[in-house]
Predict the 3D structure of the following.
Amino acid sequence: MTEDQEGQGWHLERHREYLRLLARLHLPPRLRSKLDPSDVVQQTLLKAHQSLGQFRGQNEAELAAWLQQILATTLVDVLRQFSGAKRDATLERSLEAAVAASSARLEALLQSASSSPSGRAMRQEESLRLADALAQLPDDQRMAVELHHMQDCSVAEIAEQLGRTEAAVAGLLRRGLKKLRELLQAEP
C-alpha cells in the first residue's frame, strides 16, 4: 500500500465483515462444510492487497465495488476448485451480479434518499457498520436476519432451512433486529 493510498484511507481490513457477509450469502451450502466464508474473505483481501496499486477508485464506495468484484472472482475460483470444472464466464457474471444484488439489498436496509457523493460515502460507511453489527449477533439470529432481509427468504423457507418452527424463526428475527438496532445505536 502506498503512502498516498494510506492517506486516502484505503484500509482493506475495514471491509472484512462486509465481505464475510457477502461470502456467507453466496458460498453454496454444499461447500460450507469444506470451506469457511472467512477463508474466502482472507483470499479476497490478500488478492486485493497484492493488486491495490491497480485500484483507480476515488472513494470508499468504489473500493467496496472493487472488493466485491474480487470476492466474486474468488468465489468462482473456489467453486471451480471444488467442482473440478473449467472456467465458466456465465457463472462468473452471474456470481458478480448476485454479489452486487446482495450489496444493493444491504444498502436498501439502510435506505437513504441521498445520491450525492457524500451520501453514497455515508451509506457505504453504514454498510460496513451494519456488517460489523450482524457479525456480533448470535449465529441463529444472524442467519435468520440475513436470509430474510438479504436473500428475501420467507419465514417458512427460513424455518425449513434452520429446522425450526415459523414461530421460532419469527422470534429469532424479532430479537435479531432488536439487537441489531441496539448495536447500531451504540456505535458512534
Summary: The longest helix spans residues 60-83. The CA atoms of residues 105 and 150 lie 6 Å apart. Confidence is low (pLDDT under 50) at residues 1-9. The two ends are 27 Å apart (CA to CA).
